Amino acid sequence: MTDPRYDILFTPMQIGPHLAKNRFYQVPHCNGGGYRDPSAAAEMRGIKAEGGWGVIFTEQTEIHQTSEITPFIELRLWEDQDIPAIAKMAEKMKTHGALAGIQLAYSGVNGPNLYTKEVPLAVSPGPIRTFTYDPVQARSLDKTDIRNLRRWFVNAARRSQTAGFDLICLYGAHGFGIFQHFLSRATNQRGDEYGGSLENRSRFAREVMADLRDAVGDRMAFTMRVSLDETIGDLGFSNAELRDFIEMNGDLPDMWDLAQGSWDECSGPSRFKEEAAQEALVKGIKELTSRPVVGVGRFTSPDVMARMIRQGVLDFIGCARPSIADPFIPVKIAENRIEDIRECIGCNMCVTGDMTMSISRCTQNPTFMEEWRKGWHPERMNAKGDSQNVLVIGGGPAGLEAARALSLRGYDVALAEAGDVLGGRVTRERKLPGLSAWGRVADYRTYQLSQRGNVETYLQSRLTAEDVLSFGFQNVCIATGSHWRADGVARWHVVPMPGAGLPVFTPDDLMAGRLPQGRVVVFDDDHYYMGGVLAELCAQAGCEVTLVTPAAFVSDWTRNTLEQGAIHRRLVENGVKIVLNTGVAAVTAAGVETACAYTGTPGRIEADAVVMVASRTSDNTLYRDLMARQADWADAGIRSVKVIGDAEAPGPIAWATYAGHRYARELDMPDRGDALSFRREVTALQG
Ligand code: ADP
Ligand code: SF4
């Protein structure tokens, strides 16, 4: 049944003492749950097993109390009492014949130890390097510490074996992990036998690997996750030096796991990185070692995956985000259901769960991290309730996902959309610079709906309350979206901004093709991607652009999606002038009046137009009209009316797909009263 072109992806391959059943390799990835939500994280990995992955890894697992990365939430294996939670994950991973892998991490110069209050130990002394600029320095490991650290790795490996894992990954990539710190001259300035030459800088990796082979090598396989290029010039661990390292130590691990030098480089969003972006850095490395090689590249296309293996670039297709967006990629390729793959859009919303220490969500897969909390399965819906049909109004991400999931549940669905195409905001936003892959949110769902016999779609159908009351649907789901405000109301202004004279454009204007001209001030009080992307759009259209924001960073919230640096760089390259820590106080006939965010000191920027990226207003008139006519519902046969997505409260696209899915799951379900809407884990009290 599998297309023969993809058979190569299903050939088994040996990794040390273990045979991987296929080439689909879920590389370690965070999920925002970690040690706080072990059952949620375990169930999520179990779903990957069901989806056909040959190898499944944990997120990074801290091996010792002297190195932890609070506030970020990963896994911990500090002592025996951590084993059960991790064992649950290994057990779930192995349910369908996948190999279970654990990534062991000692964070060294990345671990501020805010929780354990231990003095951080690093290869060389220096300030802690993390996202949070903690005012903490590490001291360097002395010889006794190094011996201890080797033992801590052995202890963690033994615990991993007890927990049931087959593979251990030693973490030294993305700038994180002690192995990279030893290898890179940027973090290793030691004068002893662990510093200086590459041979010396490799010593620690060789010692730990030998220790682990002695301790658990008969039953476990070892992978090394190393940076492809630290991208900080000659001082760092370059791609050339990585190749020397692998050539010198080709057989050191049972497998090489290659990942780009910094996390934002490796997990770059689609706005800045194409699929297979690391190919040039990986190519040829396989020839330096007899061991298999895995690499990543936001692979969602089976053709690209098969090519990577056929051309000898990689042995295993490493995926984090694609496996989040669709945990069933391997099964779908095996069953020749390529068009059913829910492709990752590369928005990095999943990463924000880790960065905000909340719990991850995925724009494309609303069930991610809800597999245990809510019992949501990415491919199967709960049984249909006792009503028969639903009218979904609005074909944006919320309405599309509601219609798709409702139809899978067995309801007859009518989807009414005012416009000419389905997709809502995604139809507009996918045309913005770098955001074309976001269109997959609409494309996937539009195709799925086209395959369902119980869904009717009506375009150019702007419905009124009167229409809805005349149709006779039992359930009405209103997903009519939102629009951007022109009056500046957001955070800086809680009432409309004074303004006169100058043309003011909203993001909706620009997305509809109405662009400003001349000198343009983009005022960003939204702080996600829209302000930055519209500044780029205007600059590319020939405007002289100044981006003004009260935040200390351009597109501040995108620090959570690992793209803030790339956005700032792109704007500078496009000639956009950036004014930070500044609000727009008023629009005047000659430009804008500004105010320093700290002191209020006034200023002035001359301009011909203003682009106001403030907040959005829900388009909920239809909902309000229907609520006002509740007395007519019974005669019209209406049992429920609900508003979801941006029409309820505007948010990112991921919020809308989640709202659509949730609506579909909960329709006709008993009211849970005051009970929590999800399961959670509560810490057990000690003694
Ligand atoms: P969300 O992100 O919540 O899905 P969007 O703004 O992307 O919201 O999509 C809302 C969609 O609803 C738009 O495509 C819009 O054309 C459509 N819409 C708005 N009002 C109506 C209406 N009264 N009848 C039918 N469709 C509507
Ligand atoms: Fe991909 Fe976005 Fe989902 Fe992350 S949140 S897996 S980047 S679609």
UniProtKB/TrEMBL annotation:
Keywords: Flavoprotein, FMN, Iron, Iron-sulfur, Metal-binding, Oxidoreductase
Cofactor(s) essential for the protein: FMN; [4Fe-4S] cluster
SUPFAM superfamilies the UniProt entry points to: FAD/NAD(P)-binding domain (SSF51905), FMN-linked oxidoreductases (SSF51395)
Claim: Disulfide bond is one of the keywords in the record: no
InterPro entries, per the entry: Aldolase_TIM (IPR013785), FAD/NAD-bd_sf (IPR036188), FAD/NAD-binding_dom (IPR023753), NADH:flavin_oxidoreductase (IPR051793), OxRdtase_FMN_N (IPR001155)
Taxonomy, superkingdom: Bacteria
Single GO molecular function: oxidoreductase activity
Domain NADH:flavin oxidoreductase/NADH oxidase N-terminal: 9-337
Gene3D superfamilies: Aldolase class I (3.20.20.70), FAD/NAD(P)-binding domain (3.50.50.60), NAD(P)-binding Rossmann-like Domain (3.40.50.720)
UniProt keyword Iron present: yes
Domain FAD/NAD(P)-binding intervals: 389-623
Family: In the N-terminal section; belongs to the NADH:flavin oxidoreductase/NADH oxidase family.
Stored PANTHER family: 2,4-DIENOYL-COA REDUCTASE, 2,4-DIENOYL-COA REDUCTASE [(2E)-ENOYL-COA-PRODUCING]
Name of protein: FAD-dependent oxidoreductase
Protein source organism: Fuscibacter oryzae
